[in-house]
Amino acid sequence: MSTRASHLLAGLAPSATLAVDAKAKALKAAGEPVIGYGAGEPDFPTPAHIVAAAEAACLNPANYKYTPTAGIAELREAIVTKTKRDSGLDITASQTLVTNGGKHAVATAFMSVLNPGDEVLVPAPFWTTYPEAIYLTGAKAVPVLTSEAKGFRVTVDDLERARTPKTKMLVFVSPSNPTGAVVAPSDVAAIGAWAAEHDIWVLCDEIYEHLVYGSAQHVSLPTVSPSLGDRWIVVNGVAKTYAMTGWRIGWMVGPADIMEAAVNYQSQTTSNISNISQRAAVAALTGDLTAVAEMRSAFDRRRQTMTKMLNGIDGVSCAEPEGAFYCYPNVSALLGRSLGGHVANTSAELATILLDQIKVAVVPGEAFGTPGYFRLSYALGDADLAEGLERFRSFVNAG
Question: pTM of this prediction?
């Protein structure tokens, strides 16, 4: 970082997941046979009817102008309907804000509620963006370590041990990135009741709500914990559900006074989001979920394949994820071992060795607050998924 940069931005860490993905893509572009497990984006095309809506929007001169900061009326109403359908929450269009992707929604939500000195409980492993977006508000992220033995699911006891008089907010994510953990509905309700008891806000990231497998069930925390009142914000987007990561449409919903502040903040930073993408998002949210079901079926198959193959590697153990599209294997038994003439003492070093030696890109657990693990996305083709893991297995077996 430049020494001339502001002190605030000099202290901001880069996105580890985007960095791994960028390096993998650069190597691939240079002709290297890289297989990347780093990116959190579906490998499927955006459904055709959504693309068609964007094409039509491009020909409509109304979309060549500024629109309201909070989003076009049709999209805000679609978010209201979708939120009722999937989360069980009754909101109005005035309680919605369309953002430049889910990450933007997360950052805006923090900016809208937090003050310098506030503390935010962030269960670990956590998505890399949460602590950094909290840092930018002047608040402090407090990692709450979960255990592999308990499936990386945070409990009320975990949260209570971390709570202080400065605790302002809890970040709650189920299904989880990076572990794929899904919290049982009764436990979600208990966590919400705990937050209500202590007047703690809850930021609910529901971006993976449709990607759950087997008997796992996603529920929205504010719905199952009505005692929380209006001290909640839900963030979501079209990226994961509709294979629209590049379209950059997310949103946040919450109480009217907070949403007013959020809209005002966005008016002074990004103004409105791309009109073409907003029109595409309307088609996504008002259409059926057929394409989503097809993607989920493929992801379900891949998660089982990846889990089985990872557990077939000497020194690697991996629980089967219940949601999202990531596996989070424990690779600590590989540390300190000679692999291909190289010895890694950390999972970050091991990830570098795998990329350099066998052209396999993973994100090390250090990025998620839990060293000794890897995050691997199974949102890639079946052939590449198997090929990369076979390279990993062969590399370990060769010693």
Answer: 0.95
